[in-house]
Amino acid sequence: MKQYRIAAIPGDGIGKEVIPEGLKVLRAVAAQEELDLEIETFPWGAEHYLQTGEFMPADALIKLESFDAIYFGGVGHPDVDDSLPGKHCTFRVRKAFQQYVNLRPIRLLPDVQSPLRDKRAEDIDFVIIRENVEGEFAGVGGIINPDRPDGLAIQTGVFTRRGVERVAHYAFELARTRRGKLTNVTKSNALTYGLLYWDRVIEEVHQSYLDVEYEKLYVDAAAMNFVLHPERFDVTLTTNLFGDILSDLGGALIGSLGLAPSGNINPERQFPSMFEPIHGSAPDIAGRGIANPLATIWSGALMLEHLGEGVAAQRILGSIMAVLQDKDGPRPVDLGGKATTIEIGDAVAQRLSQGGA
Q: Distance of alpha carbon 267 from its chain centroid, rounded?
């Protein structure tokens, strides 16, 4: 029996509601696939900060490094400055564990209505690969004399050859396993240093993958085509900032952010990777029991796939689709239904026991 150690960090807001449902499904599929999941939960996040003065303890990374993967809900609280959670929690983990690939599938599932009235499931099925530790979120800059008339703020994007090459190789390799196309989303006509270099390095990497169709799109044109022609995209490679924005747009295209999973991946497996829904802590609906747990459950499937358990991952995804296709079954509130978070989690776990789709 294969054993995996999973660190669960529910975090804040709806993270505390959706992670338990994800764990419920993971335990169900583990029982069927004869996997031994050793799960340890940590109470870190913005609420922890309000109670203790720290988002994570000083030795948090040492503790997490011994796990095979991290299952994360979301971080953020209305009483905590929004600039702090990323710096002291998510960015800290991503950088320390070299999770330089942020993988975000954008796939319209059967019987889910996209806001794009003419698009069907086969039209919206692509992956956003977001560079995850450099770029615009590198944290390089400062503020000088903020309260004076000559106040100055500088935020510097960081693009290194090593950083761009490694995420580009990952994206081209992924394209080879899909439909063989990669779109580089950039803005090098305006950001003529950092993103011009980004483009140059990606085009150099492309020379090792001439079997993959390659195109370059400026981010404004890409956003337009996400809406008008989503079928154009297969693997989309972009920077930290653009990937953050475009993946929320992608979540809208597939019907709800409640359906959008993600993985923060260290491809070399030198460190644990972290898997999370892209919707964050959503404090506006926290505590109401109506959050859609399917993005979290799907993120759990991505985690199992990363760990080499592809069959278990597909069983989870098949069960998600079966629940959504059941006309008489529960449906999440964000998709027009009335089911609670727990009812959706129960339905997916039950479908697993019935063999999924």
A: 15
- pLDDT tens digits, residue range 207-243? 999 999 999 999 999 999 999 999 999 999 999 999 9
Query: Residue 335 contacts by C-beta under 8 Å, 6 or more apart in sequence?
Result: 112, 113, 255, 256, 258, 259, 292, 324
Identify whether the C-beta of residue 36 lies closer than 8 Å to the C-beta of residue 51: no
- Strands 125-131 and 69-72, by their bridges, are unpaired
Span 187-204, pLDDT tens digits: 999 999 999 999 999 999
**Chain-centre distance for alpha carbon 176:** 21
pLDDT band at 145 (very low <50, low <70, confident <90, very high): very high
When pLDDT is averaged across residues 94-122 and rounded to a whole number, the result is 96
pLDDT over 70, % of the chain: 99
Buried b (16+ CB within 10 A) or exposed e, 271-301: bbbbbbbbbbbbbebbeeebbbbbbbbbbbb
Classify residue 132 by burial, with Cβ atoms within 10 Å: 0-12, 13-18, 19+.
Answer: buried
Q: Are 216 and 266 in contact (CB under 8 A)?
A: no
In this structure, is the dihedral angle defined by the CA atoms of residues 164, 231, 187 and 82, taken in order, positive or negative?
Answer: negative
Enumerate domains of the chain plus CATH numbers: 1-102+268-357 (3.40.718.10), 113-253 (3.40.718.10)
Instruction: State residue 41 phi and psi, 5-degree precision.
Output: -105, 140
Query: Measuring CA to CA, which residue among 229, 160, 237, 217 is closest to residue 193?
Result: 160
What single-letter DSSP state applies at residue 267?
Answer: T
Average pLDDT score over the chain: 96
**Alpha carbon distance 258, 247 (integer Å):** 12
